UniProtKB/TrEMBL annotation, chains A, B:
Organism whose genome encodes this protein: Sphingomonas vulcanisoli
GO molecular function annotation: fructokinase activity
Pfam families found in the cross-reference section: ROK
Catalytic activity: D-fructose + ATP = D-fructose 6-phosphate + ADP + H(+)
EC number: 2.7.1.4
Enzyme class: transferase
Listed name of the protein: fructokinase
Top-rank taxon, per record: Bacteria
Cofactor(s) needed: Mg(2+)
Amino acid sequence: MSEALVAGLELGGTKCLALLGRGQVICDRIVVPTTSPADTLGQLETQLRLWFQHEPFAAIGIGSFGPLALDRTRPDYGFITNTPKPGWADTEVAGRFGAAFGVPVGFETDVTAAALAEHRWGAAQGMTSSVYLTIGTGIGGGAIVNGRPLRGFLHPEMGHVRVRREAGDSFSGICPFHGDCLEGLASGPAIAARSGRRAQDIPSDDPVWRPVAGALAEIVAMLILTLSPERIAIGGGVGCGQPHLLSLIRARVATMLADYVADMDINALERIIDTPCLADQAGPLGTLALALAAIEETAGAG
Amino acid sequence: MSEALVAGLELGGTKCLALLGRGQVICDRIVVPTTSPADTLGQLETQLRLWFQHEPFAAIGIGSFGPLALDRTRPDYGFITNTPKPGWADTEVAGRFGAAFGVPVGFETDVTAAALAEHRWGAAQGMTSSVYLTIGTGIGGGAIVNGRPLRGFLHPEMGHVRVRREAGDSFSGICPFHGDCLEGLASGPAIAARSGRRAQDIPSDDPVWRPVAGALAEIVAMLILTLSPERIAIGGGVGCGQPHLLSLIRARVATMLADYVADMDINALERIIDTPCLADQAGPLGTLALALAAIEETAGAG
């Protein structure tokens, strides 16, 4: 059976994508800058309308920056909630597009969408627990557990976990909320603040990578001991652009676990901790995966 | 529809339980000491045989100390694997009882069983993500996500997460693997090593509770930011016996999150972080819940 034609929206802090696709094949896409909700969502809706008039799509998947309200029993379901991004707090997203096109809508964080793409089409296929971490302008994580996105009271906010500090690392961190949480210590802007250079310009043997890898190894070890994932894909600009960083992280995780977890040796860690096999397409493809999941959920509930 | 008659086994480090029950009503139970696998499992099987001959039960649920092999595609599925407990490494458990009685067997860690009981019959009913933490001789955690136990490469080993140290806390920790992991800092034996007294004999205003609550708050905040649970039940001898500890933990978690998670204020934390509503019966009832889940899984796959 060929998969349904679906639409996807990826809402980011500086730009948004609209996609049309069938399975993991993207048929068309446009990019619009993220300005105000009225302008940006309006442009995206106009594009979806053009596609829909040509050939109706069966569902829409939306992966968005957060925080998001994901509890379907609450009146604010489908909203971007208390984001500090000017103009975007309390913006209805899912309901708007569902009402405009009369199709099922899947709505999750951008990183959960990427995790779902890796689970549906990437290296995490068939896994009962898998994680997608992005290390870039911010740090975020999503997980797919027992076939569905992991969420509950809210959704994961893995970038803001407090981690142990590398011995001797006195960098105070740049997170406006928490100072030296993971994002404050190891995001792209944190690396830039530590070194005065952009991550992509820093050689792999520079000492700045040591505390960065240390902080990232803390979250990876912690995820292994709590979510027991079969795979942790580390993407984003920093994650994908620095292959040596993954080696540093794996070695540190192996030391931290100290052979406690059976079979979790460095060889296993090389399989578990890797870049996303969908590379920078995990996020966009994730929106199509969300749309397909919304169709399946509607069918299952019907 | 009345629920099926099922059997449960709870395998602990010093004693084991066998239970017979219907729904959450326990009809009969026995306790046997944990000696050798041949003796202990033999006694449990003899008891199950007596019950079975009187009225056949439809499934068996087993909650066990770990580590356990839970991947059904592997030849060691259903074994207790590399436990340091003398005589118990590489012991087949699930397959043995399944073969003896010809019924479906559910097999998970003891803490996952307790988490499942809270999800089926306790305060976590209907939740998409919920956690059970036990603080006692050791520290362990289980989670139910999207209706099923959380596991993947292995199963959670939450007690061995490394947490930030309380400022000024110089206790070196007692974990033989990791020193100052969570279990090394905040388990019953760690509290005893810190203070020279048993946890239950220490007054609630004793300064020893401060670093213990601090370490536990670290894992709770971390779980909130990764698993986004709607509930974290904290049980076990230390967890259930020290109500003031929960207040300390909640206050510390609120400070750590720094209002980052929407709606996660101290009132929400009072609802989320609590003792298990099944109290010390969460573990035993969890084995019955595992048996019922095994029946449902068999029916779903058939």
